[in-house]
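Note to self: user wants both folds in one dump. Writing first protein now.
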Amino acid sequence: MRDEYDFSKGKRGAVLAATGKTRITIMLDDDLIQHFRTVAEAQGTGYQTLINATLREAVSAGKARGAQDAPLTVAVLRRVLREELRAT
């Protein structure tokens, strides 16, 4: 072993960067965490993996709905009202 090491060109952080994932801190209710831990243990997977899969599923479902969940604007409301008034 050397008496001294040169860390002047050293970089902090993980040796291998994780691709496609970002570490964050998020506050979740205790009962939600317990639920995901229980389900994950029964499935033999990690609870964070299960939370990620659930969020991904929710995002995919939101994209599938598409324009159906578009915000109601004045122009859309006027068009719908005109169509309904013509129909009566």
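First done. Writing the second protein, which came from a different request thread.
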Amino acid sequence: MECKCIWIGADALGWDGMSMKNIAVFLSIGFMACVLPAAQSVAKVEPQIRDELPPAFEHFYGIYLNGIKVGWMQSRFSHVKNQASFQVNLEASVAGMGQVSKIRLDETRKYDIQNGRLEELQFVQASSTGAVRILGQREGTQMKMRISAGGQTQEKRVSTQESLWDALALYRFREQPAVGQTEQGQRFDASMLRNMQVDYRVESIEKRIFAGIESKAIKVSAKYKDMGIIETSWLDQEGKVLETQVGGFFVARLEPEAQAKRLDYVQDLLVSAVVKPPKPIRHSVVLNNLELLMDGFGGNLPPASERQNVKAENGKVRLKLRRDSPIQGKLESFPGTKMKEFLEATPFVQSNNKALVKTAHQVIGKTKNIHEIVHKLTRFVYEHVEDEYVPAYSNALEVLNSRRGDCTEHSVLFVALARAIGLPARVAVGVAYWPPGKGFGWHAWSEVYAQGRWISVDPTWNQAIADATHIKLAGGGPAEQARIVMLLGQLRIDEMSF
């Protein structure tokens, strides 16, 4: 379930792979961990942990988004001599805008049973446009990471405290479960190259029907504080995960292998997730002002800015949106650390890559005027990238080479090109009005910083200044963007005026 952006005639149509990308990112850090995730710290790992390990297993799960079966996942655990290994393989096929796109995620984590340390990590994401490979190997107190994306490989060293004890948290809840029981742990996410704190709590012990059989289940919540995501799992008395839910949209359910791998029908998931307004919006692409009263944010207000006024109102949120004013002046320089975060290259925004730098300078030529620069970059990305629904995490170099992608591919390529010429830029995610769906589709666009303010730019729709229907829900890197997972299927529009 991602937004997919296509065009019919002269009208821009909004859906993109953004939502499934966030699900994919979350899968790599969330449910992939939830099969046997985290608690406590390395210091608590003792030699007798060998006696606490579960027996070797292989489980299969059906993956559902918004009630639609989209794929399956295989979870395996084994231990040989002094090494314990957790492995997850996931395959999903998501229909959107008349095409079916596939994604595969594979992750393996290996721990030293004697000291509990995470020794090796492998993460691979593959889709129609290419693959991202991340390999981590323990070197002292750090993990040496090799990140390959878009044909370029980078190395980084990252400290991590994740341990085998962390990986056994849910399994330990089976011992003497009690409502209110808690654990706290570390989870190292390879795709974000960062450590995250996870807080676990037993919410209830209840009877639920799984596979047609009533079972006693331990309900456990897992809060990923850095991402604002809450994951709920049900375990049986042996510590096996029976089902996991994220928000009201994502479900992974234990099933026999044949059933998990069976996809009986394909439904357009993108259309089913549109947020409907009270009435259609005509000529949305030229809209300069829009006011909405929305519900479903769960107390988490969207970010406010000059173009997006946000106000809590009787448990709901009133949004006053306007199109940014035109950009004035010339390209600035930002000495020192100012705007460093939005100018530097990353493993997935490879703005220092020679091909990307060369392309950016060819596109803008000798132009110094910031307004013209943004127009030229917007037009180039819009024309260079052929619209294709891609349910995978994006990287700029791969988009430049493959020339395919949806709104996240458009956005990340624009951001990389902008940074390559010294223009601060970042990705924004949220919803924007999609005329064919007569509602707001999940979407991604870009933002550039100029003349002391951030300006919204939509290269997917060839809008050098994005229209007023773009509602920003999150920004920053993958961890921040993943916050919107909790909003999928929850948002409603009660009032609307222009």
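Dump finished. Worth passing along: Residues 1-47 have pLDDT under 50 and may be disordered.
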